[in-house]
Design a protein that fits this description.
The chain has 564 residues and is α/β, with parallel strands linked by helices. The protein contains 14 helices and 20 strands. It has helices spanning 18-29, 65-75, 82-102, 133-146, 217-224, 283-298, 316-322, 326-332, 388-410, 418-429, 441-457, 464-481, 494-518, 536-539, and strands spanning 3-14, 34-38, 54-56, 127-129, 151-155, 157-167, 170-180, 186-196, 229-230, 235-244, 266-268, 305-308, 343-352, 355-357, 369-371, 376-377, 432-433, 486-487, 542-547, 552-557. Strands 1, 2, 5, 6, 7, 8 and 15 form a seven-stranded mixed beta sheet that branches. A five-stranded mixed beta sheet has the order 16-14-9-19-20, covered by helices on one side.
Length: 564
């Protein structure tokens, strides 16, 4: 394949979820020309769509930015970068009000105030509810972007890698190469600044509550360009992801709704014993209690436990009113009544806590490259407060977009390194065969093998032997992938995209495994059965992965601590 289309813009945003769209608006409203690329159709793909609609912001009269900040650090077991947690807490309320300006609607009480819920880990009621959930949020941001003259959205566009140049002997991100799936053109997009907003990598795990496009390639592209990745072992496992029946597998039922002041239900084992105490524990504690019950043989035949609110003392009417939202209407549309039926759930991959290391302006360690959570980390630490994920898309999305605009104003276009372009185009061309010797099942078989290994060896419970095994398997699959080619298809070459995605998945799996091997302790969502205790003396620091060409270098990096 050869580059057949060239585009140029001030700011390139890769990813059309809540973070990417907010970044685009921040850059465009500041005066930059912006291109947004999205892997699938806008508002119909991406991780944000699976969000159930909870956002955190300290609007309660008894709450404060300082308390939100302290809750974040405490819930994260001290691993979160304090500069980022401070920004999150300070800007949360303003970004909620921005969303209302863009058309997002929130649930309010009879007096017109935001309806606030108190979820585990929150010292005050802090959780706002977005009408329409993640879809409602993305739809409003998408409409605002589509109405802005400075923003061009290109969906069904698969970015295959970043392009770099040089300025003053330093590496600079100057754009990206990708495949326009609608016309099959290999496209070079040159930009003064690039914002990575591609979400996480949760689809590597067999049990997860994310869409199939959560495959982590944004992390890999930034890593290959020279960006620091931190805490890749820190993957948040949501306690109650549905594992049965297959028709709704991968959806989730809120474990937070089991609180006494909401629905007062519980997670039950196969003989009807409660698994979770009241008040409800924070996520990683709930996850461990559930995993232990399953491992002790108290689970269902499908490897889960039972989420149940049918015996709520609050009454069926209150239960039905509370569950009358998109998340549960979807479950109900598949013949399951969440108000009365027992739903089989287990801990599943939900959110990447680590990722591309950023400062409070969302700058990475590569000049001209900015990143937003979820693909950026780590403000959460080793565990995340409920509702902070979506809030982070708006706080850091706005920061990244404005900082990218400022970079674009201060810098001219830098020519891409010809070797960078040639390497990427040849890499893609090498995946395409003009013969008919391709076996269509090969990619799916290798992908299933990788996901099974990630689930088995890097799940809720890990140990050194299993993590080393995962590294070996991921490398073997990567080697097998290097021998595969796909047919030449002009438009929507899904087999090519699957192959490129699986290569990134292998790289992410190796990084997760190696970082988990390095962290010889248990902290939050990282639980090592061979190192079951938290070790603040040796491990109150980030793990670090840096590309050294073909193989990574692993080290540690200090937590950003604010002075008192």
């Amino acid at each position: 394949m050869k580059i057949t289309e060239n585009l140029q813009t001030d700011v390139l945003v890769i990813g059309g979820g809540a973070a990417g769209l907010r970044a685009a608006l921040a850059a465009a409203e500041s005066g930059s020309q912006v291109i947004v690329t999205n892997k699938g159709p806008l508002t119909k793909s991406g991780i944000t769509l699976t969000a159930a609609g909870g956002m955190q912001a300290p609007f309660h009269p008894a709450d404060s930015e300082e308390q939100y900040f302290k809750d974040t650090l405490q819930c994260g077991y001290g691993l979160g970068d304090q500069n980022l947690a401070k920004v999150l807490a300070a800007d949360a309320c303003s970004r909620i009000l921005d969303l209302e300006r863009y058309g997002t609607r929130f649930v309010r009480d009879t007096e017109g105030h935001f309806s606030l819920g108190q979820f585990p880990g929150q010292s005050q009621p802090r959780n706002l509810f977005v009408k329409g959930g993640g879809l409602g949020l993305v739809s409003s941001l998408a409409k605002a972007c589509q109405a802005h003259a400075n923003i061009l959205i290109i969906d069904d566009f698969f970015v295959s890698g970043l392009i770099t140049g040089q300025s003053s002997q330093e590496n600079v991100a100057v754009g990206a190469i990708g495949i326009n799936l609608r016309n099959g053109q290999l496209t070079l997009i040159q930009a003064k600044a690039v914002v990575m907003a591609t979400g996480g990598c949760q689809w590597l795990w067999e049990i997860n509550d994310c869409p199939t496009d959560a495959t982590g390639e944004g992390l890999v592209y930034a890593y290959r360009a020279g960006a620091d990745l931190i805490d890749m072992e820190m993957v948040l496992f949501y306690p109650s992801v549905i594992v049965w029946p297959p028709s709704v597998k991968g959806a989730f039922a809120h474990y937070e709704f089991l609180a006494a002041d909401i629905l007062d239900g519980n997670i039950y084992d196969h003989v009807g014993n409660s698994v979770l105490p009241k008040p409800l524990p924070i996520r990683n504690e709930a996850m461990q209690l559930m995993a232990k019950a399953i491992n002790d043989g108290r689970g269902s035949e499908h490897g889960g436990l039972f989420w149940y609110v049918g015996n709520s003392p609050n009454g069926l009417k209150r239960v039905r009113e509370t569950l009358n939202i998109a998340q549960y209407n979807y479950i109900k549309s598949h013949g399951i009544d969440p108000a009365t039926d027992k739903i089989e759930v287990a801990p599943g991959a939900h959110y990447l806590l680590g990722g591309i290391h950023i400062n409070e302006q969302c700058q990475t360690t590569v000049n001209g490259l900015f990143a937003t959570p979820e693909c950026a980390g780590n403000f959460d630490g080793a565990n995340r407060l409920a509702g902070s994920g979506i809030t982070a898309t708006q706080v850091f999305g706005a920061k990244a977009g404005f900082a990218a605009h400022q970079w674009a104003v201060a810098n001219q276009y830098i020519d891409a390194n010809p070797a960078s372009i040639e390497q990427e185009t040849w890499r893609i061309a090498g995946k395409i065969s003009t013969t008919n010797n391709y076996q269509g099942t090969a990619i799916s078989e290798l992908r299933n093998r990788l996901r099974t290994a990630v689930q088995s060896y890097a799940g809720v419970n890990r140990n050194g032997e299993g993590l080393a095994r995962l590294t070996k398997i991921a490398k073997e699959i990567r080697e097998e992938l290097s021998q595969l080619q796909v047919p030449e298809v002009k438009v929507y070459n899904q087999q090519l995209i699957d192959l490129l995605q699986l290569e990134s998945m292998c790289e992410v799996a190796m990084l997760v495994a190696e970082c988990a091997l390095m962290r010889q302790e248990s902290r939050g969502h990282h639980y090592r059965t061979d190192f079951p205790r938290q070790d603040d003396q040796n491990w109150l620091k980030h793990t670090l992965a840096v590309s050294m060409g073909i193989e990574p270098r692993f080290a540690t990096k200090p937590i950003n601590m604010l002075s008192e």
